[in-house]
Structure prediction request, 145 residues.
Amino acid sequence: MKRYLLLFSVFLAVQSLYAQASQHPDVEQACMDYIDGFYQGDTAKIIRSLSPDLLKFGYWKNKETGVYESDGQMTFTEALDYSRNVLVKQRFVAKEAPRKVEVLDVGNHIASAKVTAWWGIDYLLLAKVDDRWVIQQVLWEGPLK
Prediction:
């Protein structure tokens, strides 16, 4: 009996790891859509990657004092407006700009990732909603240098 319980436990552990690993590309894609939405002014990618309940909060380094100061919050609507503005004003980001995603952890319904972009570093918390990964919260600081 103990042997069967042990085998069953191992089976469940392997299944759980497989499920998490299989979700990794979907989490990464949501993060890439987030970057590209801002870089390319692609509102479809912003809508696809961000939760309507988005909470984005960050710190920007003051050029004069060198001190990081609160840059306030950004809502889903403000993110969408920013993306539209990039497209309207044709302020696209250079091709060589940083565009890196590190998926840190994936659970059954939650995930975390680190994004490096031209503005700095973002830590993202994602949730699986209606079988797709969306970014719920972002904590960031910038610039990179």
